[in-house]
């Protein structure tokens, strides 16, 4: 028979009718609240990181391949389509999709205003299914007009931000004056759709159109493009994919991870991650402090019992195990309640989006949730392990209790 566990169970029953019952409830509530906050923090952090990264990747791919140039302009030097990366992407088992792109600067002119922007030219091999999540209104570009030689579609997508400034809607016509070394060249375009990513780097600068138009303006044949956007099957393999492509492709081509191109946004995400870690440490510290305080109160209430147990021959280790079992009981109850609260909130937010956000500050319109079972298990294990280790601090007081003084303690 496990005597310490038996006594701990009897104590827990009698405590329900004593002052320590209130203290126990406070301990359980503090552990539950702390664990719930940690679970919610991880769910939101994971969702936030995934949402922002997905917005960047769907717009620019995981890796971009362009021509080496000393020019700081967003406009690229041309690359031939006669390239193994584009012609035979299946030779690389990590590649999911390769698409072409090109940029050209210009000025949009509506009936109300002017706006400087870059056109991102794409072709019919653009993965519009990935981009569909960003399409807020209208349809994607119709490339049927660009099937003939030297022809191109005049459809464009503009961001919500640009559409609001120029007072545009789907179906509206607009002129764009493209930069040219000799003289600006204008084209009449039609707004086919309005997109929204919430990322200023894209929404404030880029419209999407037919790459055939840029090829015509640059006097490029159909076999030249500005670069390739590479989507990998697993985002965790981007580092390895970059290294393989750098070794395989021509030395004149520049292979760049999107995380390096938009390093400010990815560093910002890492900074948020560091802040969450600090937040979790503080929550764990508060939970540990609470459980130490609770156990000290329980020991003080049971001083006479401790003295009596010592007087009849109980060892310090046995008595400490009694209060350790009691502490573990509080921890388990608090963790069960904390999981119910944290996961429950995650489910409500995931399905009903009850907590909105300001997209101008947070890049999205509601708090995102990403389910990560491993993270939830790790948070639970960390909470149980850390608080469980801290239980040895208050129970050390038992070593200093003298039987005679304890029995007389009032």
Explain what the structure shows.
With 410 residues, the protein is α+β, with helices and mostly antiparallel strands. It has 2 domains: 3-55 and 266-408, no CATH class; 69-251, no CATH class. It is 52% helix and 18% strand. It contains 16 helices and 12 strands. The chain has helices spanning 3-15, 20-60, 84-87, 128-131, 160-166, 200-203, 211-217, 238-248, 258-261, 263-301, 303-311, 316-352, 359-362, 373-390, 392-395, 403-408; strands at residues 63-67, 79-80, 95-109, 114-122, 135-138, 155-159, 173-178, 185-195, 206-210, 224-225, 227-232, 253-257. Strands 1, 3, 4, 5, 6, 7, 8, 9, 11 and 12 form a 10-stranded mixed β-sheet that branches. It has a two-stranded antiparallel sheet with strand order 2-10. A hairpin with a 4-residue loop joins strand 3 (95-109) and strand 4 (114-122). Helix 2 runs antiparallel to helix 10 (263-301). The chain is elongated, with a radius of gyration of 32 Å. The mean pLDDT is 86.
Summary, kept brief:
The protein contains 16 helices and twelve strands.
Rough shape? Answer: elongated
How would you spell out the order of helices and strands?
Answer: HHEEHEEHEEHEEHEHEEHEHHHHHHHH
Q: Number of helix segments?
A: 16
Q: What is the mean predicted local confidence, pLDDT?
A: 86
The fraction of residues assigned to DSSP E strands is 15-25%
CA-atom Rg in angstroms: 32 Å
Q: Roughly what percent helix?
A: 40-55%
Q: Tell me the major beta sheet.
A: 10 strands, mixed
Unreliable spans are none
Count the beta strands: 12
């Amino acid at each position: 028979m496990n005597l310490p566990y038996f006594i701990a169970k009897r104590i827990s029953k009698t405590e329900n009718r004593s002052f320590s019952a209130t203290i126990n409830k406070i301990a359980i509530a503090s552990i539950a609240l702390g664990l719930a906050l940690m679970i919610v923090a991880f769910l939101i952090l994971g969702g936030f990181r995934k949402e922002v990264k997905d917005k960047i990747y769907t717009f620019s791919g995981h890796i971009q391949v362009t021509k080496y140039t000393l020019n700081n302009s967003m406009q690229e030097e041309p690359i031939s389509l006669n390239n193994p990366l584009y012609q035979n992407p299946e030779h690389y088992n990590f590649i999911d999709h390769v698409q072409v792109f090109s940029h050209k600067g210009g000025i949009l002119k509506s009936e109300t205003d002017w706006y400087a922007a870059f056109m991102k030219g794409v072709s019919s091999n653009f993965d519009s299914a990935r981009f569909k999540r960003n399409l807020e209104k209208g349809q994607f570009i119709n490339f049927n007009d660009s099937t003939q030689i030297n022809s191109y579609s005049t459809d464009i997508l503009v961001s919500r931000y640009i559409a609001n400034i120029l007072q545009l809607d789907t179906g509206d016509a607009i002129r764009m004056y493209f930069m040219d070394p000799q003289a600006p060249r204008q084209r009449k375009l039609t707004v086919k759709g309005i997109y929204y990513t919430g990322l200023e780097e894209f929404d404030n600068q880029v419209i999407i159109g037919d790459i055939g138009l840029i090829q015509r303006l640059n006097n490029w044949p159909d076999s030249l493009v500005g670069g390739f956007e590479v989507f990998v099957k697993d985002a965790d393999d981007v580092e390895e994919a970059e290294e393989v492509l750098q070794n395989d492709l021509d030395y004149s081509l520049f292979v760049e991870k999107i995380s390096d191109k938009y390093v400010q946004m990815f560093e910002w995400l890492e900074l948020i991650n560091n802040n969450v870690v600090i937040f979790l440490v503080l929550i764990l510290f508060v939970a540990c402090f609470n459980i130490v305080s609770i156990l000290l109160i329980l020991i003080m209430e049971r001083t006479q019992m401790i003295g009596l147990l010592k007087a009849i021959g109980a060892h310090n280790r046995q008595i400490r195990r009694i209060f350790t079992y009691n502490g573990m009981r509080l921890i388990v109850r608090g963790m069960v309640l904390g999981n119910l609260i944290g996961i429950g909130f995650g489910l409500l937010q995931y399905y009903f989006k009850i907590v909105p956000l300001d997209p101008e500050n947070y890049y999205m319109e509601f708090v995102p949730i990403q389910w990560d079972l491993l993270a939830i298990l790790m948070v639970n294990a960390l909470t149980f392990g850390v608080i469980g280790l801290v239980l040895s601090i208050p129970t050390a007081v038992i070593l200093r209790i003298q039987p005679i003084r304890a029995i007389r303690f009032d």
